[in-house]
Amino acid sequence: MSLNIFICGVGGQGLVLLTTVIGNACAKSGVKVVTGEMYGLSQRSGAVSVHLRIGDDAFSPLIPYGEADVLLSLEAIETLRYLEYLKKDGVVLMNKRIMHPPIETSKLVADKESKYVALDDIVAKLKGWTQNIAVVDALKLAKESGNVRTENTVFLGCLSALEAFKVDEKDIRESISEAVPKKTVEQNLKAFDLGKQNAHGSLCTLVPCRALP
Amino acid sequence: MVLKDVLSEEKKAAFMLGNEAIVRGALEADVKVVAFYPGAPTSEVLDTFADALGNFDYQMEIATNEKVALEICAGAAFAGVRSLTAMKSVGTNVASDTLFVLGYTGVKGGLVIVMADDPHAHSSQSEQDGRFFGPNAYIPMLEPSSPQEAKDMVKKAFEISERHRVPVIIRTVTRVNHQSSIVQLDEMNRSEFKKVKWKELNEEYTTLGEVARRKKLKMLERTVKLAEEFDQSEFNFTKKADSDVGIITSSVSYLHVLEALRMLNLKVNVLKLGTTYPLPQNTIKNFIKDLKKVVVVEELSPYLEKELCAIAKDANPDLEIFGKKTGDFSEAREYNPNVVARGVASALGLEYGGEAIVEEAKKFKEAIPARYPTFCAGCPHRGTFVALNQALKIQESKGQQHYFSNDIGCYSMWIYPPISRGDSSLCMGASVGVANGISHVIEERVVAVVGDSTFFHAAMPALVNAVHNGNKFTMLVLDNSVTAMTGQQFNPSTEFTAGGRQGKKISIEGFCRAIGVEFVEIVDSYDVKNNVEVFRKALEYDGLAVVICRRECALYGDRNKRRRGEKIVPFYVDKDMCKRPYVCLRTFYCPAYELDEDRQPRISPELCDGCSVCSRLCPIHSVKRTEVKA
After folding, report:
1. Which CATH architecture is the domain A3-205 placed in?
2. Closest partner residue to A23 among B180, B358, B487, by Cβ?
3. What are the φ and ψ backbone dihedral angles of B623, each rounded to 5 degrees?
4. Domains held by chain B: number
5. pLDDT by residue (tens digit) across A65-122?
6. Which residue in A89, A62, A81, A88 sits closest to A5, CA to CA?
7. How close B609 comes to chain A (CA, Å)?
8. Chain B interface, mutation test: which of A8, A33, A38, A44, most B Cβ atoms within 10 Å?
9. B263 to chain A, minimum CA–CA distance in Å?
10. I need a labelling partner for B443 at 20 to 30 A (CA). Which of A96, A197, B31, B409 fits?
11. Three-class SS of residue B104?
């Protein structure tokens, strides 16, 4: 069976790099992988998404609706935008961080009663779809790693804890070292470890994970 | 991207983007000259070749437009050298003048043209189907479905091109260019780059009148031979099943078909076509001869479907053909496994409910805001827009109304909310062409906007036209030094060319003055307050007024800063000072801004680019630069 991961976020959060790292690790592990990546317009701040499919019976670069095992969102609002891809009772692995689009803020300025979408609202909605929701404060962990731009690697650490994610950790670490800028390798590896540890405290209470060594 | 795999001498499996696989294939095939104008979804072909420069012996140019790029490659191919260009669907329109003639003249060295269509118009102005270029120009066309096939086909295309002395189109779609998967790397057979003696080649590439008529006949003969050859091609293959139903498909739709058959638990025959011009007639005849029903699965136009109808008329007149004509599939938007499953199910009368989940998900999304593409934090266009908007308002208060002629580039996003401005926006350079015409017939003042790259690409002839004919409008050239939207590639507006090598910078103001534009002003896009008056004068000017708004693209600038070891210092809102007039938010729409719990503006330090423009706008000076300890 293939493992389908739908990754979403906001332009500039490093989704493409995350995908490259996972894909390269799959190549090293001899695991079949196919992705469909959506970017092109605006470099930053627009909605970005990647369909990532690991395993022998994945053909299309796009995940069919309702077949994603994991919905990984680097920004909380974006989680709901792609809900149709997630299996009922699939895993939501989402960032605590919200980046309010300018259009939402401009509504608040125009209307004093208007409010931002809050994390709790998003989680409450998601609970109508699945109970397997892990919220990660990736920005905090990224800062802890020494590089605020490693939120993507924090999530890779979380993913690597999943039992269903059959990619060798050694290959992932090697792949991180090859793909990120030289000066940030240490920070990224630390972010990876922080993500993995975090998963064992939250994600792994919901779904089967690998044992920590 | 990991460049290491593109360069690797090792024959191993690598994870590659479709565009990287195209580059790898061309390098393995000993390509010697490459030229491009960037355009999504092909830009990474250019970027990968630029990154690989210096590792191999090839010439590379970032051309001013797709036509020039194709001509660079044609020139090399005339002299027997292998060359490759890649362009987005609509770029082929620009290059098509040359493309059609190359069908007649032919080439000596292999010439491969990667043409990427963009079903769904993800990053294009239309859902153009470029497959018609093949039969129209009598140029053979191959269509890969995956990165592996893309690499294999590029290599094969060079061979075909040389054997038949004709350029070959590799037609992709976004979901092939931006698809990554495992690709098997083969040997790098690189040879030394050597100049040849033209006279010794004894070649000619002319066509006109009688010569053209003669060459047309040869072109027709060539096409017949190609069709015969393609009947033997490994790129067309059949997956057999014990069924009297078949599916004919090509490109990424093939992968969606495999997925859809799994989803529907259906076993039917599948013919996957890789050579889509000229079509392998006998292969198709053999496939359909014992079938009762065939479903054609292809994005955009019914290109294969029409051909199949013609072939079936003789080969199997009773064959039932399903596709667009029967309403099972649409010509609009891109396909995915669900769209294909729905279409196949509808054609064959099967149950399919796979999209109910999409409807169900809708009610979960009601609360979330749209996230339109927008300008990056620090983008100079935002500053330009604020000043222009103020100037337009002043002019409006004086009774002057405006027509806004937009163009292709990051500034295209002015049409999206919350800015939502733009009366027309067509294709590269058209803002100026349209301004020429509409300024004759409307009372409003016309404002045309182009970027630096678009200026060089296609706007220059329209500007010359405006000067020559005395047309009156205002033109803004947003010069951010690079072709920003496709990934900050160099263009003639910088002193750099492909791979950061030295190039000659072309002066936009120098060009404008040389052709006789009398009103030419240059402003810094960040200097909003002073720019209002310049824009206002340019709007009032009784003639053609050009304002060049100069400031480097924020992402390009950030990269340069990082290279120089400079820190990006964010701004913050002083909560004690801020009286919430919201000037920053109302006029500026920067994605680094949000409201805090007191509904005071807050700048996210992770997102702020330190451009300072918002601080210049705040009437009470409450936006300040973070102090950095020395």
Report:
1. 3-Layer(aba) Sandwich (3.40)
2. B180
3. -100, 120
4. 4
5. 999 999 999 999 999 999 999 999 999 999 999 999 998 999 999 999 999 999 999 9
6. A62
7. 12
8. A44
9. 9
10. B409
11. helix
